Amino acid sequence: MKSSPPSPLTNHLIDNLPRQDRASFLNGCEAIDLVFGEVLAEPGGRILHAYFPLNSFISLIAKLSDSERLEVAMVGSEGMLGIPLILGLEESPLRALVQGAGPALRMPVVVFGRHLAQSPALQALLRRYLYVLMHQLSRVAACTHFHRVEGRLARWLLMTQDRAHSDRLHLTHEFLAMMLGVRRAGITQAAMALQTRRLIRYHRGDITVLDRAGLIEASCGCYASDRRLYRRVITEGGAP
């Protein structure tokens, strides 16, 4: 098995800023470590900071009730937490839960607002990221309704691997069920199917990706679609 290369401590959104804007923006950031299980925002709660993960990642969870929760997006080194700030809003629509501990950059809301007002390049980049995130959220809704659990599990494992920068993941049955909006029995069946195909090894919440290429093939087309869109809109700066 070929291991994933170590991740550089970087955030791709910040890296896509022009040099002068990037240097100024980084000066306004504070380096922190995100802790597994830490709640950074609650639905309806006030946003105090914008977060830019480096080698960490955050789950965005829609919560209808204590028993009705669904992960609708992830934020890792490709993005940011605090996207309502772009729209001039300081209220979080979703629960933000740290699923991958590690370093991140944090910026107070007031400082973020000042940088946003002074940098047209930052405004343009974050509008593009907002478009990408909107696409991901809409895709999750359709994917949850139309695609089989096995393909959706493969997709979310790949998304998690991308942000964890590791072949080894720890995801409990409870979290996987919430992630996909299915019962635990459905998770067990889907995980066993992927394991039988020797794409993953799964034991008591410890998952090892054995065959990434095979897992991509097993996933629904939403994974490849999300990656193409991010590359075109953010990395290459093309039209949405």
From TrEMBL:
Coiled coil: none annotated. The keyword Transcription applies. SUPFAM superfamilies: cAMP-binding domain-like, Winged helix' DNA-binding domain. PROSITE patterns: HTH_CRP_2 (PS51063). Gene3D superfamilies: Jelly Rolls. Residues 147-213 form the HTH crp-type domain. Keywords: DNA-binding, Transcription, Transcription regulation. It comes from the Bacteria. This is Crp/Fnr family transcriptional regulator. It comes from Halomonas salifodinae. The lineage of its organism: Bacteria, Pseudomonadati, Pseudomonadota, Gammaproteobacteria, Oceanospirillales.
